[in-house]
Write a structure and sequence with these properties.
- The protein has about 260 residues and is α/β, with parallel strands linked by helices.
- Helices cover about 40% and strands about 25% of the residues.
- The protein contains nine helices and 13 strands.
- The strands form three sheets. Strands 1, 2, 6, 7, 8, 9, 11 and 12 form an eight-stranded mixed β-sheet that branches. Strands 3-5-4 form a three-stranded antiparallel β-sheet.
- Helix 2 runs parallel beside helix 4, helix 7 crosses helix 8 and helix 7 packs parallel to helix 9.
- It binds ligand 48H.
């Protein structure tokens, strides 16, 4: 066999095996932002079968850009244990007890590496365009290639069956929107609908991101900014402790649900 054929066959075979093995999973995660990556890491480490679908080529979500493209972010002491778990380094901010800066590129890459090494499979350049909703139950995801989505090509999608679905899509809460608007699901919020993100209030937003990380419908969870948008929390700018803690919390909630 020519080397050209060896390379192409190997890639087609290993990718196909990876996808085939993840068409039915314990947890299907939408979005590869910081909260979802922590969740993927924790769940996989504890033995769950996890597939994460990220629309962009590079997972990491809003981590890479730091604050206004200054590629540094801030994390508070409550979340430094999670940074330690991923081997991410941080520096104290002089005069601001309990707050640290860190390199956002180091954070994004370490979270991705950590999730993959824990056993989660990441499928990048794939967009989740719908959910499976069968007998009043959320049963998984409907996926397609992002270039198909971007080019508006009329190509039917494929599906991934999952015991639990996690919306980690950030500010737009894409999966929760589909759940409310297409499946007419009543969410576990005061109105049954998405309450919508509020303006900037750093400490409130940080606390509410974790508090709002919940199971919003049986088998359907939200983390990070998505959870905050669903429950009407404040935004917080480039401080990421709440995102990391939200990922850790949702992993625990899902583990309890799965009985793992
Ligand atoms: C596949 C999708 C789909 C889809 C979206 O926004 P993220 O970084 O996620 P979080 O919530 O973990 O982190 C939020 C943080 O980055 C942030 O924005 C903060 C702290 N903002 C504060 C403020 O005041 O603005 O990542 C979400 C990811 C992205 O990579 C998307 O590409 C991806 O989800 N995504 N992937 N299918 N339908 N929708």
């Amino acid at each position: 066999m020519s080397i050209e054929n060896v390379i192409s066959s190997a890639i087609v075979r290993t990718f196909s095996d990876k996808l085939l093995n993840h068409l039915e999973v314990d947890v299907a995660i939408v979005g590869g932002g910081p909260s979802a990556l922590v969740a993927a890491h924790d769940l996989a480490k504890n033995g769950a079968k996890v597939a994460l679908f990220e629309r962009k080529l590079a997972p990491g979500g809003g981590t890479w850009g730091g604050g206004m493209l200054f590629n540094e972010v801030v994390v508070q002491s409550d979340a430094t244990g999670i940074l330690d778990d991923f081997g991410i380094r941080y520096e104290p901010i002089p005069g601001a007890d309990g707050y640290f800066t860190l390199d956002s590129v180091e954070m994004a890459s370490a979270l991705i590496y950590g999730a993959v090494h824990a056993g989660a499979k990441i499928f990048n350049a794939m967009s989740v365009e719908d959910i499976i909703f069968k007998n009043e139950k959320v049963g998984g995801l409907v996926i397609n290639w992002t270039p198909v989505e971007r080019l508006g090509m009329h190509v039917d999608p494929l599906t991934v069956v999952a015991s639990c679905v996690l919306d980690g899509t950030g500010h737009p809460s894409e999966i929760m929107n589909l759940a409310v608007n297409k499946a007419h699901i009543e969410l576990n919020t005061p109105t049954g609908k998405i309450l919508g993100e509020k303006p900037m209030w750093v400490d409130s937003g940080e606390a509410s991101t974790v508090a709002n990380t919940l199971e919003y419908f049986p088998g359907l969870f939200a983390c990070g900014m998505s959870a905050n948008n669903v429950m009407g929390g404040y935004r917080m700018g480039p401080i990421f402790g709440g995102m990391l803690m939200s990922g850790r919390k949702v992993a625990k909630l899902i583990q309890e649900k799965l009985g793992k």
